[in-house]
Amino acid sequence: MQNDNMKASGTNETVVRSSSKFQQTEEILRIMAERALGKSVRSFRSKELGGGMCNAVYLVEADVLKLVLKIAPDPSVITMRHEKDSILNEANMLKIFEEKIDIPAPKLIYLDTSDDVCGAPYFFMSFMEGTPLMTMAEKPPKEFIFELKRQIGLICRKISSLQAESFGIPVMPETYRDNNCDFILTLFRMLLQDASDKEIEVPGISHDELLALIEAERDGLNEVKVPCYIHTDTWDGNLMVKENRLQGLIDYAAVLYGDPLMNHDFHDFGDPCEAFLEGYGKTEFTHNELIRISIYKIWQRLGMIVERGYRNYEDKNQYAWVLGEFTNEVDHFRMLISKKI
User: Global pTM?
Assistant: First the structure.
């Protein structure tokens, strides 16, 4: 699922409008900044940043300091089940990664869960220079793209070096499971219930049939014995680039405890990038691993389909192309299963 991505100061990306974004006035933003800094500021300005799909994101300049502010949705807005407290998940991950591993990520500056400023949690993090790879007007040379993707592989490998005690969504103990299959089924059931609540059609397959197909692969899914931290959203919109150099990786709301193959670049659209695989250190896959990757691809695409019913995007065709990608991946999954027999 694509989540919020900060944009560099001075860029002109269009802000994606969705009902989950909790926009604030300049006055409220200033109060937030002064609370975070613990002092009054003489000069202040803010700019809503483009591209984010769920949370409102602002570039804030308080005196001479640049910060990025991320605000959770208004509590009255119904969000998808797996997005519960995602703002807290990201803040926690920023803190954990700063303490435990060396990766180029923003630093958590301040987290406020009191809800007494704007009615929702928010946090400030350090500003990261650069432009998201996705929005660059002139794409870097191919050799740079290869090196960038290789570095993302290295970053994901470092993230996945951290082990967890259970499979699950970190800030949602109710999702914790003792094995990978039960966790994956939990993720699918949450999305399918979200779809039912909004009467969103899942193309080409019934809910029960989809769950049964996944359940049948229990043994293969449970080859993963130890859950680790995984980043499920390292798409090009979250890769900050400046002067053909990777400045860092942003947006840690979608970090889970799970199978390393759930890292985003293993189940993105198309085959895994050779450079990413080289950086991560895994270039060969068993048949069961390919089946697991296909299941995670189906999960990603299903999430993007269901998301359309919750964001109320201005562009009603947002992610419409994913419908075909979903049905194609279900067919691919069936083909992989048939080859086991």
Answer: 0.91
